[in-house]
Design brief:
Layout lengths: L8 E5 L3 E5 L6 H17 L4 E6 L3 E6 L6 H14 L23 H9 L11 H8 L5 H10 L2 E6 L6 E5 L24 E4 L2 E4 L9 E2 L2
Antiparallel strand pairs: 1-2, 2-4, 3-4, 5-6, 6-8, 7-8, 7-9
Helix pairs in contact: 1-2
Length: 215
Amino acid sequence: MEVQLPLARYEFGGDEFVFVELDREMSLKANLKAMAITGALRRENIDGVIDICPSNASYLVRLNPDRLHPAELVEELRRLEHTAGELPDDHAVRTRIVDVPVLFDDPWTRETLLKFRDRHQDPDATDLEFAARINGFTDVRALVEAITAAPFLVTMLGFVPGLPFCYQMVPRDRQIQVPKYVRPRTDTPERAFGYGGAFAVVYPVRGAAGTSSSG
């Protein structure tokens, strides 16, 4: 199986960083390609590579320019862009299963959402009602059933420590997508579950956010 994506974009961050964007559109295949490339790079154990940080559709490499020239690293990354995209049919992603109980339409999240309805695309609907309607579900119950029917893969951690970006493992035409608020909330309960685009997140701490929260 070969993951076909546009040619990657390479950028230098000063002398110590190389940033690689694999695709402008975030997708599970872009994430798998990022994981394949960074995994191959890690196994090569190149002298001068300090840190490797994969993301949803990109990755960042930190290097020691006194031991590895950034241009030489980019040359190697370009090679891996083509060779690491070819995955065997029996390729398996090593992971662990974490059960996250979700209470939908809980009183704490609902209270918070109602305080910020003027910042939402549809102030007259709850986040769950809005998400159900724009994704073509008949009601909130059908939306909840779709969310809980298939597992999610954590593709990255970001913005705050411990905040997982979770991509649901379903065909592209079944991906649930919910736009962020028109203006971000200044408050979100700790451990709230929410959607931003096609990614689900679980907030590890209380704080500002722009996703549509469900529970």
